[in-house]
């Protein structure tokens, strides 16, 4: 038997690796985040429940988002070994311009509610990492203010068709004059989805000071301090609102929009046009035939029609149908760099991400969005290397198997 003996201090001393104390709590928090899921956990701790649930939740029983994540989780990669992957190229071409990473930051509404730095923080991080950022019609930073704050970025504008067509025309004109590169027309919100978490939380825009929210504020003092001591939340494209998201959608959005309305959009927008919210091959063919430069296969992150199709499953058929005439993007359920790689391998030109960067924003503001980008970049690079792939351009359907 091996003889046992206590190790001496001189033997133990080299093993002691005490980290220097980091006084900044945000730096400590983000250093401990190694996945988007870790950022989600940090965001949940720092954000009032109703705000977190607005980001995290989906429609009705939340079947659509669960299915989308399950499919992505169950994707099987097909790696090839003995290949030189010392250097890998993560860049791609999106609408004729280089993007350093194969994803786009999707439009998300009311971003300054999640964290007071809001859309400008997200756009600055997107610029640093070389990816497009899409400002939502429902944003809390104006078209002009974002353009001034981040003038040299790839700024896209996310557009909904309103009942007030004159107001919609004004938005498109303002975006064009402010130098926005691309219009992203969202078409899957004729009415608002039933966001039951929001209803149960009594969530309104902006958050109301009730007994419930005051109690929740005691558990999240830093969020409320920022909310109460920074510029009031103002909406980028309309004056004010005091109801729920579902009520707001019913008030603003036009449920009579048809394919012919793309001609109206084209009267006011002559740049690249992306149509977001496509959920069938037939609809992809229709909008590309009507002049869309790209389509986004999307069920709105599960936030509209519950039990909707899983967008990533549609990719191969849509790419086959329209991929020679338009770029095809995908979203809904993507939460890691490996998910992004799977989407690109199945034929998407790019993946749109929303919750992933919002979790980072809620966890640590602009630095938190940077951390989300760092995590995604490392995961994409590592997944490519382990697949034996040297560039995004080399990915093909042969690298993945859908469940």
UniProtKB/TrEMBL annotation:
<feature type="binding site">
    <location>
        <position position="303"/>
    </location>
    <ligand>
        <name>glyoxylate</name>
    </ligand>
</feature>
<dbReference type="InterPro" id="IPR008259">
    <property type="entry name" value="FMN_hydac_DH_AS"/>
</dbReference>
<comment type="similarity">
    <text>Belongs to the FMN-dependent alpha-hydroxy acid dehydrogenase family.</text>
</comment>
<keyword id="KW-0560">Oxidoreductase</keyword>
<dbReference type="InterPro" id="IPR000262">
    <property type="entry name" value="FMN-dep_DH"/>
</dbReference>
<feature type="binding site">
    <location>
        <position position="136"/>
    </location>
    <ligand>
        <name>FMN</name>
    </ligand>
</feature>
<feature type="domain" description="FMN hydroxy acid dehydrogenase">
    <location>
        <begin position="28"/>
        <end position="403"/>
    </location>
</feature>
<feature type="binding site">
    <location>
        <position position="298"/>
    </location>
    <ligand>
        <name>FMN</name>
    </ligand>
</feature>
<feature type="binding site">
    <location>
        <begin position="107"/>
        <end position="109"/>
    </location>
    <ligand>
        <name>FMN</name>
    </ligand>
</feature>
<feature type="binding site">
    <location>
        <position position="195"/>
    </location>
    <ligand>
        <name>glyoxylate</name>
    </ligand>
</feature>
<dbReference type="Pfam" id="PF01070">
    <property type="entry name" value="FMN_dh"/>
</dbReference>
<feature type="binding site">
    <location>
        <position position="186"/>
    </location>
    <ligand>
        <name>FMN</name>
    </ligand>
</feature>
<dbReference type="GO" id="GO:0010181">
    <property type="term" value="F:FMN binding"/>
</dbReference>
<dbReference type="GO" id="GO:0016614">
    <property type="term" value="F:oxidoreductase activity, acting on CH-OH group of donors"/>
</dbReference>
<dbReference type="InterPro" id="IPR012133">
    <property type="entry name" value="Alpha-hydoxy_acid_DH_FMN"/>
</dbReference>
<feature type="binding site">
    <location>
        <position position="160"/>
    </location>
    <ligand>
        <name>glyoxylate</name>
    </ligand>
</feature>
<feature type="binding site">
    <location>
        <position position="300"/>
    </location>
    <ligand>
        <name>glyoxylate</name>
    </ligand>
</feature>
<keyword id="KW-0288">FMN</keyword>
<dbReference type="InterPro" id="IPR037396">
    <property type="entry name" value="FMN_HAD"/>
</dbReference>
<feature type="active site" description="Proton acceptor">
    <location>
        <position position="300"/>
    </location>
</feature>
<feature type="binding site">
    <location>
        <position position="54"/>
    </location>
    <ligand>
        <name>glyoxylate</name>
    </ligand>
</feature>
<protein>
    <submittedName>
        <fullName>Alpha-hydroxy-acid oxidizing protein</fullName>
    </submittedName>
</protein>
<keyword id="KW-0285">Flavoprotein</keyword>
<feature type="binding site">
    <location>
        <begin position="354"/>
        <end position="355"/>
    </location>
    <ligand>
        <name>FMN</name>
    </ligand>
</feature>
<feature type="binding site">
    <location>
        <position position="276"/>
    </location>
    <ligand>
        <name>FMN</name>
    </ligand>
</feature>
<dbReference type="InterPro" id="IPR013785">
    <property type="entry name" value="Aldolase_TIM"/>
</dbReference>
